[in-house]
Amino acid sequence: MPKTSSDTSNKGSMPLFIKEVGGYFMEFLETDFHKRKLPRRSIKLHNDKGLLTGLNINKYPNFYKIAYKLANNCFNPDFLNSIQKGVYKADIPKSLLDLIKKQIAQVADTQVTELVNDLSESIRQAALKHKEDYLEAFNSVMDDADKVFKKRIVLSLVKSIEKPLENNNLADENALFQIEEELTGILKNKVEDSVSELLKQLLSGEKPHAKKVLKDVLDIKDIRASLTKFFDMFKVSDLFNDFHELYQNFKIEDKQEFYFYFYDISYQKNKYPIFYIPFSLEREGETFSINFESQIYINKKALAYIAQEYNLERDKKGSLQTIADRIIYLSDHEKDLHLVLQETLTEITNFFSLEGKVQVSNPEIQTSKNLYVAVTTNAYVALFDKSDEALLNDYEDILNAADDSPLMQGFQTLIEDFIHENPVSVQGVIADEWDEKDVDERLVYKSPIPLNSEQQQILSAIDNDQCKYLLVEGPPGTGKSHTITAIVFDNILKNKSVLVLSDKKEALDVVEKNIINTLNKVRVDEKFQNPLLRLGKTGNTYSQLLTQASIDGITEQFRAVRSKYPNLHEQIDTAITNLREGVKGQVGAYEKISLADINELISLKQHFDKEGVCIDIDEAIANPDSAEELKKVRGILLSLKERMKAIESVSFNFDFKKALSEESSENLGSMLVSLEDIRDLLADNPQFAKNNFLSSYQELIDNNKKEVEELLGNLIDISEIVDILTENKAYLELIDVQKEELNALSNIREVTRFTLSLQDILQKMEYFIGDSLPYVESFNASHVEDIENLEKYINDVKELKSGVFGFLGKKEAVEALNQDFRKKFALSKFEEPHKSVKELGKVVEIYKYILELQGDGFGDLDFVYFVTSLLKDKNLYFSDAKIETLRQAAETLAESGAIVENLNKGSLHLSTLDDLKNIDIAVDIESLYADLNVVLTEEDELLSQNIDLTKFDSLEVLSQGSNIDDLISKIEMCRQYVDTLIEIDDDIEYLQDSSEEHKGSFNFAGIDNTSFASLYENKLTAISDLEFEKLLRLVELNQKLIENFDDVKDLNYGDRTKQIENIVTMQMTYLMDERFVEFTNTYRNDAKTLKLIIKNKKQFPKEQFLKLKSAFPCILAGIRDYAEYIPLEPEIFDLVIIDEASQVSIAQAFPALLRAKKVIVLGDSLQFSNVKSALARGDINKQYVANLKDVFLKNISTESSRVERLGKFNIKVSILDFMGFINNYRTSLKKHFRGYRELISYSNKYFYKGDLQVMKVRGVPISSVIKFTQVKHDGLEEVTKNTNVPEIEHIISELKALKEQDKKCTVGIITPHTNQQRLLYEKISGLPEADYFFDILKLKVMTFDTCQGEEMDIIFYSMVATEADDKLNYVFISDLKNIDQDDDEGKIKAQRLNVGLSRAKECMHFVLSKPVDQYQGTAKEFLMHYSNILLEGQNELDSTAVDKKSKMEPLVLDWFYQTKFWEENKEAAEIMPQFELGKYLKQLDKSYKHPNYRVDFLLVYDDNESFQHKIIIEYDGFLEHFGDSIGMVDGSNYEEYYSKEDVYRQHILEGYGYKFIRINKFNLGENPIETLDFRIQEIVKKKFLITK
């Protein structure tokens, strides 16, 4: 027993273990472990499904002769390149066909009954014998079935027609055996599923009725039909028709290739080709074109196996020598291929001591044989799995490698990484790095294509030094190909090499297309031959690249970009920085929008909708000062009554109250015209504002004295200002000021202010210009208009230079621009201005900055000319000391100005410097006293009179009184009275001014412009203070939110990211072109040699390959092809990518891992695994696994955990599963791009647990996305089992309808049964419209087993099952909840569902022959699922429905219908309301907590270029969209209206092609229709492709 407590690791014995692994994997690739020990590549004319997969061309003698010449002449296409209908015929006697038909009809019911009994007993015995091992039980029954079918049916049937077949040279002894084997295989295939189900039931304790189940499957009519179908191969008499059937089967089978087999060898009645060569076949009308590959393979495995068995049987030793090299390269044997073939055939006949010789030179059919072995010159055309020959060569190299070779050391490292080491996980590191990134970093990055969060993190993981093995799970439609493309581009930009591998040609086609389409964004021609190398594909790209035209094109492109390349880095960095800043700004702007504010606004709006408002809300919102102004208006209105009481308390002759109450057609201000005299009294004599006017005069006199004295003290500073200014004559001349003008005080003050302001501007200009002053000095502008002309010149030059080739070929246009420049700017010093665009741009910036600084107060002066003149001439400057003096003196000058202004109100007249110097203080002051004498006489008379003050024209009337105290008291009373009247007058004047600005609010409040009484009684005075404050808050919140939303700038994120992508793409194409150009220039001869190597599918010598790799950083190849070219060297690539990894067995992938420094595999464990691995016989595989374990325990380790890991070195493990145990980083792509949410819903629910984030917005009714059609079926049994003609006829009618509608969509048909697939293909191929269906609609007919990797717009599902005949329980798993992970068959049945139901992009159309509820098991489950989805979708709102709660949605819809866009595009556009955006946002982020809402509209528009625009239009009415939850939202649970996470999610959706238009009352503008139309039109001008 092996030890488990300690490790007996012996790494020195690792080579022995490696070779054991290599031998195990190699044996599987050669045999499939399908039949014990027998080589895979044998001659079979039918597969187990009954499909024709081989053709013995001996049937057509004329064609056989041509084939003979072809093989002897190195497969020269001059001998054969096509097969035409009617050219090659076979002569099959009718009597033979009648005999076969008769013998098939004699197969009796009794034979079937005996067969059923035998099989039932075998099943019962196997279940008893192998109670714990289902696989052993199953294999046991199927071995018995082989014997039972032969005994009961096959042997007797073949015996009855044996002689006629031999007599007509249609079969020899070995061929008859082959017929027996194939017929047995076809009949066994009928019971395989039933046997499996019966065994599982028995082993689980159930007691099924085995005989009944088997009898249902083994219907006598179906058996006869299958036998008839098999022998139909003898009915065909035209080689073209045989080829056509093979071609049909090639189209419906998966991973098959055409082979030409020539010369065969038989042993123990099994036939094997000796030589075979792959070829491609294409149909064009009634002609098949044939293109042979460049190498012949020797069936080494079969020959070695026969030699080994022969030696054992004859007790003989030795081996065949000429088969050591399994490949014969035609290019090496163009003249002597016949000799090479003859050498091998001669050795075979000699080794086996065969009688008779097979001569290659003899065109007749020959046979050489003994009792054990036979060799013939027969030839065949066959369909067979794609060859693993190149991988077998790799394993041979491994087995033959020295223990200390680099090859062995590389594999040792790989195995030790898995067995001995615990992989270092970088999962947390990458997640932390992502979490630490801000939104701007996540949204803006350097890449030629868009990247989602998963893809960015994958690139980060690849860059991590500790990350060597990466695993990416990619469910259907999640962008695996896009991810691969992104990885390829990232590595190219980092100067690293990448090998992309896949076992599906279609997957490589998509990646290649993605790469080419991206590169062509910056190419001048879509047909440009990009330096991308695809190996193994027919018509590989290398030969095309090596044409002189391609070399010249790439070289020209390289040179055109070379001059720009140094600036690309800066352009990329600048563009990324600017956009990131924009994202930050947008995030910041959104974060300012408080949902609490919105909530409060909604509450206030609801309140006033109920209570009503007393102002015009819209008018108030439009005025930023309205809140304060309305508050003041209301305050005035409330104070009017109090003021009127003050007026009524004074008795005068004039009845002011009456006057104020009278109606007048004039405005309220005109009612106070009778008070003008009193106003004038106060205005002309300010001394009346004091209680004692005598003391007021004395105070005035004293103040005047003091001010005059201060003014005279300031004369020194003012004179100094004049001196400084007059010294700089050049400066005065520049500003056009004469020296004598500086005598006027106003001029001195103005010139000083101007000079100091200008000095500040010059300091700012010098800081702004920096070292760019020479540009200004070199350019002469005299007018502001010159700036516009200069800016136009710069733009014209840039536009001329745009494009890949810049000024190339545009010399005349450049010179024309320069001549115009010189004409307009004759004094400028730029000789070749087009080369100085950057400098001229700086000049424009400088001149614009000058204009920004100009401001007010500089009059009509040409400010640009003035400032630039100062900048150019330092002599015009003032020294810093003088500027400081001017600044200090200016303060004195300002003080003096105020004093002068005050003094001039009296009798003084001071305006010049001379006036100040000559002022006579005494005279002017004394004259003030004279004014007092006129008011000091006859005061008693004044007091005795009832004076009407409104009649006073001057103060002279006051001389009638004599009592000064009474007079003063009277005047004080008048003053107070007049003050009140003046306040009222001022207020009314303010109200009059406000009535125009707030006209709507005055009307709302009930304030009549013609009624003074309305100032007392109105809504504004009636409303409470609290309600008025709420009203003002409503206005202020509206204004705040309008400002907030205005701050949210449209980033034009889509356009700007595309710009970044294009610049990065240009950078990348330059790097690729540079490497290719260097390769073709440096290794011109080697390049031609490599061309021949690729053509002949030879392996590159290591040194030659390194040169090739230097030219092509990215190489694409099939997993079975790449090893034909690329040497088996450790770490020859920086990165190896394996796509569709679930379908690649570890045996296929292991040599690829060796070639890589890092490996990333992409696939989906919930889709099909490698079918051959899954179907490999468990008993055979167990033997190899046991042997491997023995070697491991003896030579490597006995430590239990390592022994456990060893179990993963199993051919049933895919490379995807293997990487699950060795990866340093693992992630899953979750964003689904292929179809709508409803289409992927079944897979998402039952396989991916709802984790898929569906990015495709459904813009069509659900009824056009999911369809059900139930056809009428008569219930009668179909001629061919598992077919349904009515369903086929309906699907054909649907295809014809698509043609009539001229649809440009792609179409697929998926059915559970191969027979239905074949019948569909036959019937559709025979239609007149077949070319349209296959060429235009790209129609593919598939089964659930063969559709992986495909995607079509429309998928028809022909379910075949009828009420009388339903075999779907054998196709699909019965219960998805109980999948046995050790049951390969069960996993495949489950995978069928996931794969088959995830292919549609636009529509799933189920064609059924019975109601959905009559299906069983998971078939019923998924049909009911989609039926319910359809029903739920039909209950959704239709395109005329809007939110009944929303007052705005009908209005927005009405606006939309009035736009020019709708008028011009209504036939191609559809608008749908109430789209549930919240569901899509929720998918993007499970932590999404924004209140769930519907958006108002989804606009879908197909433009005239067949591009579909999807535009989400959202009117933020807030309450309508957030629903009941709005009342629960406050600062404690969701403070921000639109968080940075929301910005991120929206831009992610925008990155996938969806555009958002967010409108609300805050950003609609004055004309909502024009605003909406403009924003829609701007979007549809641009196209954004959805990227995966």
Folded structure, characterized:
By secondary structure, the protein is an alpha/beta fold. Helix content is 53%, strand content 11%. Strands 1, 2, 3, 4, 5, 6, 7, 8 and 9 form a nine-stranded antiparallel beta sheet that branches. A seven-stranded parallel beta sheet has the order 12-13-11-14-15-10-16, sandwiched between helices. Strands 19-23-22-20-21 form a five-stranded parallel beta sheet, sandwiched between helices. It is elongated, with a radius of gyration of 48 Å. Mean pLDDT is 79; it is low at 1-8, 650-701, 920-968, 1484-1493, 1518-1536 and 1584-1588.
Summarize the structure.
This protein is of the alpha/beta class and 1588 residues long.
- Please bin the fraction of helical residues: 40-55%
Count of beta strands = 27
Distance between the termini: 53 Å
Look at the structure and give the mean pLDDT.
79
Uncertain parts? 1-8, 650-701, 920-968, 1484-1493, 1518-1536, 1584-1588
Main sheet specs: 9 strands, antiparallel
Strand content: 5-15%
Class by alpha and beta content: alpha/beta
Please tell me what the overall shape is: elongated
How many helical elements?
A: 63
Give the radius of gyration: 48 Å
Topology (SSEs and partners):
Blueprint lengths: L13 H18 L22 E3 L4 H12 L9 E3 L9 H12 L3 H21 L4 H34 L5 H31 L6 H8 L2 H12 L7 H14 L3 E12 L2 E15 L2 E6 L2 E4 L1 H15 L12 E3 L7 H15 L15 E3 L3 E13 L3 H12 L5 H14 L7 H10 L2 H5 L9 H11 L5 E5 L6 H14 L4 E5 L2 H15 L13 E3 L5 H5 L2 H15 L2 H28 L2 H17 L5 H6 L3 H23 L7 H6 L14 H9 L8 H21 L1 H13 L1 H6 L10 H25 L3 H5 L7 H17 L9 H14 L12 H18 L8 H10 L7 H24 L9 H5 L3 H7 L11 H6 L19 H34 L1 H7 L13 H4 L2 H23 L5 H30 L1 H12 L6 H10 L2 E5 L14 E6 L7 H9 L1 E8 L7 H5 L2 H18 L4 H7 L8 H8 L2 E4 L2 E6 L4 H6 L6 E4 L9 E5 L14 H16 L6 E5 L2 H12 L4 H7 L3 E4 L8 E7 L25 H13 L3 E9 L8 H18 ...
Parallel strand pairs: 10-15, 10-16, 11-13, 11-14, 12-13, 14-15, 17-18, 19-23, 20-21, 20-22, 22-23, 26-27
Antiparallel strand pairs: 1-9, 2-5, 3-4, 3-9, 4-5, 4-6, 6-7, 8-9, 24-25, 25-26
Helix pairs in contact: 1-12, 1-49, 3-5, 3-8, 4-5, 4-6, 4-7, 5-6, 6-7, 14-16, 17-18, 20-44, 21-44, 22-43, 24-40, 24-43, 27-36, 28-36, 30-34, 30-36, 32-33, 32-34, 40-41, 44-46
